[in-house]
Amino acid sequence: MALMITDECINCDVCEPECPNDAIYMGAEFYEIDPHKCTECVGHFDEPQCVQVCPVACIPINPEHVESRETLWQKFERLAAAKAKAAAAEPPAPSAGA
Question: Where is the 4Fe-4S ferredoxin-type domain positioned along the sequence (predicted)?
């Protein structure tokens, strides 16, 4: 079950930095959640962090993307593997002494 942000969003900016999967982004009018990146924080936290910090409670389960906990875990593993692969492909940062 990916989450979604409803049009009740007040664009307070507290949810976006809390997402460990970078699934939250500013849409045309209010924040949105990419269902392909949302794991409801499975693999990171016990509870969805965006839901915990939202002051207006506008982040319900997205009925168009219902997923089991097992499916969310598999998505977390795919995202983590892709992130690790991307990090390994990046050139090393220059050292401070250089």
Answer: 1-29, 31-64
> What CATH number was assigned to the domain covering residues 16-86?
3.30.70.20
Enumerate residues 6+ apart whose C-beta is below 8 A from 51. 3, 57, 59
Q: Count CA within 13 A, CB hemisphere, residue 7.
A: 2
Structure tokens at 64: 């168009």
Cα distance between residue 73 and residue 88, in whole Å? 22
Which tens digits make up the pLDDT trace of 37-87?
Answer: 999 999 999 999 999 999 999 999 999 999 999 999 999 999 999 999 998
| pTM metric for this prediction | 0.85
3-class secondary-structure state, position 5: coil
